[in-house]
């Protein structure tokens, strides 16, 4: 999982493997921080759940003590301003355009900056780009880079467990917003962010975070609209408050909608899913099943037509020399993940079908016994198997007489093209009429033909590969009776 693609002038189809990028060198005067997960036990998750006492359940008696009042204030006052302003402040087209633009700027601060650059280190960014993303991310008012990345790394390491800060198994609304409105029920699992402590941009943003969120969240968009076209209150309401609401819930959808809506084309072990609607809601973060399988990849969407403006932004930055070493997971391994899930889906379909009897479950009959029993019931031999064709005599497209004349005989040559080269459907149907195995095997060269076409590519688990159809016809001293 550590092999990635490194490239200075990246293209979408790069596949050359290189070692993973080393973390940035420690800044002068910064004390070396020991990784938080350096000494955790091997059974850390189960041990922590067993030994770490969670907060008491929320009830009518204690709910007011369990609320996170700072977060509640941010997530309620801001939309209240936006709703009130929408009814009392006219929306100018210039403000509307700028609000959408600034939504993408601050949204990319989270998706391209907080998420793909700092939380996952999926590419390298120049200092100017880092400062831009740090400032833009602050405008989204979702915590500092270090705080946000620490929680997100815990989410990836402990996905869907009690140590996941926004565990999707707790419900859609919990993972969307509930986990922020109340105090954490349990301390999130340990996640190392010592690499971010060495980053001067991260430390700068962390130090000035309160000033940055006020400036970038409200002051900047208000001033731009005021000085640009004289719309002070429109800038404050729409480019400030309303835009911030959209950015918040856009990002929150990555934790909720992306774990609820869509398909699992790479792995279904955990809840993350892929869906274009989620991608549209989250500036390209909607191909979440891929992301959780290959989190170090700078892409979420791997197809050119899939909506992922964050990927496009990072790629353009690389073309301008502002970003480099864009990591791409090996295409061969991505294809394995897709194939695994495709085979699993086929296996599920396969399990509900009725298949031909296993040769090991059929009696082994001599030629003499076969001919004797064929005088009492319509039995024919094809490819070493004895078939009871009573139910098909009057259904045969070529006429009843073609089957009747083969009763008590070996019809292998006629069936395999001597009279008619039967279709796959005919082979499959005939195999369902098997009632015995002819003692002595089959004619030379017919080993592959004894397997019905539907079962030649049958999906098998690794412990099922020793198929009875891969060996020669079983022989037995036991003289069984047919069906």
TrEMBL record:
InterPro entries: Acyl-CoA_deSatase_haem/ster-bd (IPR009160), Acyl-CoA_DS (IPR015876), Cyt_B5-like_heme/steroid-bd (IPR001199), Cyt_B5-like_heme/steroid_sf (IPR036400), Cyt_B5_heme-BS (IPR018506), FA_desaturase_dom (IPR005804), FADS-1_CS (IPR001522). Residues 1-35 are annotated as: Disordered. GO terms for cellular component: endoplasmic reticulum membrane. PROSITE patterns: CYTOCHROME_B5_1, CYTOCHROME_B5_2, FATTY_ACID_DESATUR_1. GO terms for biological process: unsaturated fatty acid biosynthetic process. It catalyses: octadecanoyl-CoA + 2 Fe(II)-[cytochrome b5] + O2 + 2 H(+) = (9Z)-octadecenoyl-CoA + 2 Fe(III)-[cytochrome b5] + 2 H2O. CDD domains: Delta9-FADS-like. Expected to bind 2 Fe(2+) ions per subunit. SUPFAM superfamilies: Cytochrome b5-like heme/steroid binding domain. Residues 8-19 have a biased composition (Low complexity). Its cofactor is Fe(2+). The keyword Heme applies. The chain crosses the membrane at residues 69-89, 96-117, 129-148, 208-229. One of its GO terms (molecular function) is stearoyl-CoA 9-desaturase activity. PANTHER family: ACYL-COA DESATURASE, DESATURASE 1, ISOFORM A-RELATED. This is Acyl-CoA desaturase. It comes from Dichomitus squalens.
């Amino acid at each position: 999982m550590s092999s990635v693609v490194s490239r200075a002038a990246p293209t979408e189809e790069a596949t050359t493997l290189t070692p993973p990028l080393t973390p940035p060198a420690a800044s002068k005067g910064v004390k070396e921080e020991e990784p938080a997960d350096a000494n955790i036990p091997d059974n850390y998750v189960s041990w922590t759940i067993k030994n770490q006492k969670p907060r008491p359940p929320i009830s009518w008696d204690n709910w007011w003590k369990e609320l996170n009042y700072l977060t509640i204030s941010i997530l309620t006052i801001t939309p209240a301003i936006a709703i009130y302003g929408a009814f009392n402040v006219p929306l100018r087209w210039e403000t509307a355009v700028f609000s959408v633009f600034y939504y993408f700027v601050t949204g990319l601060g989270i998706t391209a900056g907080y998420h793909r650059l700092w939380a996952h280190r999926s590419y390298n960014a120049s200092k100017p780009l880092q400062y831009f993303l740090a400032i833009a991310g602050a405008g989204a008012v979702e915590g500092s880079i270090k705080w946000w990345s620490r929680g997100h790394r815990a989410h990836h390491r402990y996905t869907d467990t009690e140590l996941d800060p926004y565990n999707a198994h707790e419900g859609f609304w919990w993972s969307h917003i509930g986990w922020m409105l109340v105090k954490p029920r349990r301390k999130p699992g340990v996640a190392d962010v010592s690499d971010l402590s060495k980053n001067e941009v991260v430390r700068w943003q962390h130090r000035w975070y309160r000033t940055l969120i006020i400036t970038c969240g409200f002051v900047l968009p208000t001033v731009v609209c005021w000085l640009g076209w004289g719309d002070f209150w429109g800038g404050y309401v729409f480019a400030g408050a309303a835009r911030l609401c959209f950015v918040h819930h856009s990002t929150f959808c990555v934790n909720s909608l992306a774990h609820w809506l869509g398909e699992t084309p790479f792995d279904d072990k955990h809840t993350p899913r892929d869906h274009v609607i989620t991608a549209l809601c989250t500036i390209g973060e909607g191909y979440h099943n891929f992301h959780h399988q290959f989190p170090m990849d700078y892409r979420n969407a791997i197809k050119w037509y899939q909506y992922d403006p964050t990927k496009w932004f990072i790629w353009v930055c690389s073309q301008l020399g502002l970003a480099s070493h864009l990591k791409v997971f090996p295409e061969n391994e991505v294809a394995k993940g897709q194939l695994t899930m495709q085979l699993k889906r086929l296996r599920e379909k396969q399990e509900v079908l009725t298949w031909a009897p296993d040769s090991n479950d059929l009696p082994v009959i001599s030629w003499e016994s076969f001919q004797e029993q064929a005088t009492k019931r319509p039995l024919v031999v094809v490819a070493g198997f004895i078939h009871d064709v009573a139910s098909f005599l009057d259904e045969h497209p070529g006429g009843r007489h073609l089957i009747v004349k083969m009763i008590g005989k070996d019809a292998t040559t006629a069936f395999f093209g001597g009279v008619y080269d039967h279709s796959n459907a005919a082979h499959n149907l005939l195999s369902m009429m098997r009632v015995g195995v002819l003692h002595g095997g089959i004619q030379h060269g017919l080993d592959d033909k004894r397997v019905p076409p539907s079962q030649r590519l049958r999906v098998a688990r690794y412990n099922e590969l020793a198929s009875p159809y891969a060996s020669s016809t079983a022989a037995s001293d036991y003289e069984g009776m047919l069906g």
